[in-house]
Design a protein that fits this description.
Blueprint (H helix, E strand, L loop, with lengths): L7 H15 L9 E6 L1 H4 L10 E4 L11 E5 L5 H4 L3 H4 E6 L5 E7 L10 H14 L5 E5 L2 H6 L7 H11 L3 H4 L5 E3 L7 H11 L4 E4 L3 E6 L2 H21 L10 H11 L11
Parallel strand pairs: 7-8
Antiparallel strand pairs: 1-3, 1-6, 2-5, 3-4, 4-5, 6-9, 8-9
Helix pairs in contact: 5-9, 7-10
Length: 271
């Protein structure tokens, strides 16, 4: 059996968490990631018949029975993941009852997965219904995106349109726009259900005055979506108080989207 610490999915998670902390997106124990793994790949590193312990999910994840995920731990700091992945990460499998997680590796200090795992699993289910290749749900607190929540209407069309205006690449990177939720109590199934409903339509969902959820086929894709939103939000926050002399026009956004062949939200433009 190969050393799990050298597994590509563990190495990726370590690097990703370190990078997100370095960027200031995941202060203290803020933020969480769940990454659905290939069973055959995991089987090269772990005995899949050996369950360390079972952990209640607090959610009926029947649709994901047998799926394996690597998940950040509750109360864990992203800055510590790289140095001690075995305590700060865990690899779980959704048990046959759909309501329990089987711990296959990690959480060695007796911990468990993030309290927002139910919200993640709901989003995984929703996104798999749209894109069977979706594997990652990522939640973080990017500074400028969060700051923008306080000075910009929390309206999906307006929020998306403003960000599309900030960087030429935006309409190409997230042509499907951004879903927006009002402030809601985090760590509950209610916010998970609301997020999952938005995920049927969007790959990015802003939690008002809290942070953002991004999904993708890989850690890079989910990270890149959030990274692009954060860059655009930073430009907005740097310029929002200044006279607008130039902007990317809606006609130019159409030109961009059609040149790159992306399916963009035409109803989010003002034409």
């Amino acid at each position: 059996m190969k050393n799990v610490l050298n597994a590509p999915f563990v190495v990726e998670m370590r690097r990703c968490c370190a990078n997100m902390y370095r960027l200031g997106w995941d202060e203290r124990n803020g933020g969480n990631i769940s990454y659905m793994l290939n069973e055959d790949e995991v089987g090269e590193y772990l005995d899949l018949d050996k369950v360390i312990r079972e952990i209640p999910l607090g959610f009926d994840a029947t649709a994901l029975i047998g799926k394996i995920f690597i998940v950040t731990g509750t109360g864990k700091y992203f800055k510590n993941v790289d140095a001690d992945p075995a305590c700060n990460l865990g690899i779980i499998r959704i048990a046959p009852d759909g309501k329990t997680a089987e711990l296959l590796w990690g959480y060695e200090d007796g911990g468990k997965f993030t309290s927002e795992l139910p919200a993640h699993l709901m989003s995984h289910i929703a996104r798999l219904g749209v894109d069977p290749e979706n594997r990652v749900v990522m939640h973080s607190h990017p500074t400028h995106t969060l700051a923008m929540n306080y000075v910009h209407p929390l309206d999906e069309k307006k929020f998306t349109h403003t960000l599309w205006e900030m960087c030429t690449e935006c309409i190409v990177v997230f042509p499907d726009g951004i879903g927006v939720l009002p402030w809601m109590l985090c760590g509950t199934n209610s916010i998970g259900e609301a997020t999952a409903e938005k995920m049927k339509e969007f790959r990015l969902v802003v939690w008002g005055m809290h942070g953002i959820y991004g999904v993708g086929k890989s850690l890079d894709e989910a990270f890149g979506l959030i990274e692009t939103v954060e860059k655009a939000a930073e430009i907005y926050m740097l310029t929002a108080h200044l006279p607008r002399i130039n902007t990317i026009k809606d006609e130019e956004m159409v030109e961009l989207a059609e040149f790159f062949g992306v399916n963009y939200r035409k109803d989010f433009l003002n034409l």
